[in-house]
Design a protein that fits this description.
Length: 137
């Protein structure tokens, strides 16, 4: 019973620390570093999953459920923070960049060549009958 309480407290501590450090993240690079350290393979949450094999049989389902809940809470918080950071970056980009509508368009481009529907049909018929190597001219 003491082991159960200790492991659950450990998971709650992992979640609280992860969420607390996520609050101070302000940039994409910091967010990616947070994801790696809190949700990556060597993160504390994944450490709980890897230590499940050494736990008692009665404790495994409870710890698995609790660890999944912690991981889900951290992933949800990560996604929410990612959306906030991306929205802030987009707003900053839109604020700093502007489009000069007085600039001329691209010069020197040619319009697409007109398509002769009859020639296309002739080429299709040549191809259909295996005569695609012949020229129509």
């Amino acid at each position: 019973m003491a082991e159960k309480a200790a492991e659950l407290a450990k998971l709650q501590k992992i979640q609280a620390e992860g969420l607390a450090t996520l609050e101070v993240v302000a940039e994409k690079e910091e967010l990616e570093a947070w994801r790696v350290s809190n949700l990556g393979r060597s993160s504390p949450v994944m450490g709980v999953f890897s230590s499940m094999g050494t736990m008692d049989k009665e404790l495994r389902p409870l710890m698995g459920k609790a660890a999944n809940e912690v991981r889900t809470a951290l992933e949800t918080a990560f996604e929410a923070k990612r959306e906030v950071i991306e929205a802030a970056a987009l707003a900053k980009e839109l604020e700093t960049e502007s489009l000069d509508v007085t600039m001329p368009g691209r010069c020197g481009t040619r319009p697409p060549a007109p398509v002769d529907p009859g020639a296309a049909a002739d080429r299709a018929n040549l191809w259909r009958y295996g005569l695609s190597g012949l020229s129509l001219h």
